[in-house]
Design brief:
Shape: elongated
Number of strands: 6
Number of domains: 3
CATH architecture of the largest domain: Up-down Bundle
InterPro entries: MFS (IPR011701), MFS_dom (IPR020846), MFS_trans_sf (IPR036259)
Structural class: mainly alpha
Keywords: Membrane, Transmembrane, Transmembrane helix
CATH topology of the largest domain: Growth Hormone, Chain: A
Pfam family, one: MFS_1
CATH class of the largest domain: Mainly Alpha
Helix content: 55-70%
Order of helices and strands: HHHEHEEEEEHHHHHHHHHHHHHHHHH
Radius of gyration: 28 Å
Subcellular location: Membrane
Number of helices: 21
GO molecular function: transmembrane transporter activity
Strand content: under 5%
Distance between the termini: 53 Å
């Protein structure tokens, strides 16, 4: 059993040597890397699109006695007279969403006529009683249209349905993460990568064409399954063909693309209808069908499957595009070690020592379970992964609840991940893994707690002159809270980047991929489900 492992290790080492000779990040790698990064933009946007497609807009009851039928104003001056609600310490009124005061019929002679448009000066306190009633027509604070209006999901009793969209989405990520990894190992990185992109696009289009809430949930689940495989497979394909000295840089840049993809959702201000937004995120990735001819298969996967001839073709093509030559000695040595590895593998099979990949995974599980030290490491790693997921997605999902323009806030909360990844890179190089991880988590904790205290100390958001725009204008934003929120997101992003590296390096080499690719990310997605529920609560 030891011979194949040694042979495989040598093959990997020699492949890195070949990458150095043909160019660690030459024209061939740069072209493929850019192609691979483009669908990551749409995968990132799809991963959080439900924040806007299934978000709850600002609304209140429609008051036919006072509202103009075709030009109702959400924050009209008389709203506090006709609709119950709450006053902030700074004098800002937030109307109830689904209740209104019963009209005093003695003061509104034509109140039963829904087409009447009463002037503002007739809406006085004496025109309404203190009794409340439910309403079934609503006035919205913006032109945004989500599934709330589409299928009548207003009012508190339907809040669980909005939370359940996020739960279903992240459940799809759990399934997709495990499934795409297994299929990619079995059928090839490239083919499953392309399948995930096309599947994400088609199910996204189907989601935009949903006819009811149940069908929307079903296609949201399928869309998440496809979306979950795009980034990790792009990471593997993009990084595996890059030389050792450029590999760390390429992994960080891919995260930049992911952050920009999330921030693209901020442009949904120009696509206020949820169907239009979902189509805009789903149709463009279909162009990636051309990747079947443009993007090569992972050379390392081909070597692992003993498809040496195909791997050699890609290596020679890369050298040609990069205008580099491969020394005869290195290729000869590489081929000889490949033959040695194949011979050793055949000997193991003939001797009855061949172990299937699935069996190796179970052997890894048994070995870890039998070691208190490894079990302790895994327990700590799983806890950190779950905490990272809850905080990371919790901050992302609640970005739209910050004071100010929610589209701009969401874009900023996503874009702040770019300096977050850069900070992680700097921390890892200068302070080591433990200090980088602890420092990132501490930075996030301090700023998030501080933002909460600042909010409580001020009592409420700073209101604008127009109450209807109090949460939609930067002129009334609580800059300190927003800034602390952004720094907190920067810290948790840095922590996420560090924990990936920490997880890979803490485990023994033969168990590293099993933990890094299967167990810890699944616990991460489980934590994301909790964050989606907390988003509505």
């Amino acid at each position: 059993m030891s011979a194949p492992a040694a042979g495989a290790a040598s093959a990997v080492l020699d492949f890195d040597d070949i990458l150095v000779e043909i160019g660690e990040f030459g024209r061939f790698q740069r072209r493929n890397y850019l192609l691979i990064c483009l669908p990551v933009l749409f995968a990132a946007a799809n991963s959080l699109s439900y924040v806007f497609t299934a978000g709850s807009p600002t609304y209140r009851c429609y008051v036919p006695e006072c509202d103009k039928l075709d030009d109702a104003e959400y924050g009209a001056d008389w709203v506090s007279i006709a609709v119950p609600g709450s006053w902030s310490k700074r004098g800002h009124f937030t109307p109830s969403t689904c209740e209104r005061f019963v009209a005093n019929d003695g003061h509104f002679e034509s109140s039963s006529d829904p087409w009447s448009a009463w002037p503002l000066d007739q809406c006085f306190a004496e025109n309404f009683t203190t009794e409340t009633e439910r309403c079934h027509q609503f006035v919205y604070g913006s032109s945004e249209r989500t599934i709330v209006q589409q299928w009548g999901l207003q009012c508190p009793e339907n809040l669980w349905k909005m939370a359940f969209v996020g739960t279903v989405h992240f459940a799809g990520l759990v399934v997709g993460t495990a499934l795409s990894g297994y299929l990619a190992d079995r059928y090839g990185r490239k083919h499953i990568f392309l399948f995930c992109i096309v599947f994400m696009a088609l199910t996204g289009v189907a989601q935009a064409l949903s006819w009811d809430y149940i069908s929307f949930l079903f296609f949201a689940l399928l869309n998440a399954v496809g979306t979950s495989g795009v980034y990790p497979l792009a990471f593997i394909i993009g990084v595996e063909m890059v030389g050792p000295r450029k590999r760390e840089m390429s992994s960080i840049v891919l995260n930049y693309f992911y952050a920009v993809g999330e921030a693209l959702l901020g442009l949904s201000v120009f696509l206020p209808d949820w169907r239009q937004l979902q189509l805009a995120l789903s149709v463009p990735p279909l162009i990636c069908v051309a990747y079947f001819w443009l993007v090569p298969e992972s050379v390392r996967w081909l070597l692992a499957r003993n498809r040496r001839e195909q791997a050699g073709v890609i290596i020679r093509r890369a050298a040609k595009v990069n205008r580099r030559d491969i020394s005869v000695e290195l290729m000869a040595s590489f081929k000889q070690q490949e033959l040695d590895a194949e011979t050793s593998q055949e000997d193991d099979v003939e001797g009855g020592l061949h172990v299937q990949k699935d069996d190796k995974i179970w052997l890894a599980i048994k070995e870890v379970a039998g070691s208190p030290a490894l079990m302790g490491r895994y327990a700590i790693l799983l806890l950190i992964w779950a905490v990272n997921a809850i905080v990371y997605y919790g901050l992302s999902l609640n970005a739209t609840s910050l004071s100010g323009n929610k589209y701009l806030n969401f874009a900023l909360v996503c874009l702040v991940e770019i300096p977050g990844y850069s900070l992680a890179w700097l921390f890892l190089r200068r302070f080591g893994r433990r200090v980088a991880l602890s420092g990132s988590l501490l930075l996030c904790s301090i700023t998030c707690v501080a933002s909460g205290f600042v909010t409580l100390a001020q009592g409420d958001w700073i209101p604008c002159q127009n109450g209807a725009e109090s949460r939609h204008s930067w002129s009334c934003a609580n800059w300190l809270v927003v800034t602390l929120f952004l720094v907190g997101k920067l810290g948790i992003t840095s922590s996420f980047a560090v924990i990936y590296t920490f997880t890979a390096e803490m485990m023994p080499t033969e168990r590293r991929r099993w933990c890094d690719v299967h167990i810890c990310p699944l616990r991460c997605d489980a934590g994301s489900i909790c964050a989606s529920i907390g988003f509505v609560l």
